[in-house]
């Protein structure tokens, strides 16, 4: 349970860092975006590292959710609390991340879902 809480905290911290280190201006101009990345290469590298760590943490949380859901359907009742904790934790973390920056959060969420589905061993 403690490891799952640490993963959820890692998802939030990595998502927050990506949102703060990569700025998306409105209206979005691709040239300005690339110039910003070239001018600040250290922030870009740190944000990229935080993005990949956030995707890995989120993918692991989603993979645990899918495995726990499979155990619930196979009638192991003690897994319901883990599933409830993880699902509510994911909803809360992504709610706050979407409030901070929806573009970044949606990108992390989509890539994490693809990563978690691709890494499932059933």
Shape descriptor: elongated
Measured on Cα atoms, how large is the radius of gyration?
A: 16 Å
Helix content: over 70%
Sheet/helix structural class: mainly alpha
**Main beta sheet:** none
Number of helices: 5
Mean pLDDT: 86
Number of distinct beta strands? 0
Percent of residues in beta strands: under 5%
End-to-end C-alpha gap: 22 Å
Low-confidence stretches: none
- In N-to-C order, the SSE pattern is HHHHH
**How would you name the oligomeric state of the polypeptide chains in this document?**
single chain
Brief summary:
By secondary structure, this protein is mostly helical. The chain has helices at residues 2-21, 30-39, 41-73, 80-100, 102-118.
Description:
The chain is mostly helical and 122 residues long. The chain has five helices and no strands. The protein has helices at 2-21, 30-39, 41-73, 80-100, 102-118. α3 (41-73) runs antiparallel to α4. The longest helix is centred in the middle third of the chain and has 33 residues, at 41-73. The protein is elongated and about 55 Å long. It starts with a helix and ends with a helix. The model has no long low-confidence stretch (mean pLDDT 86).
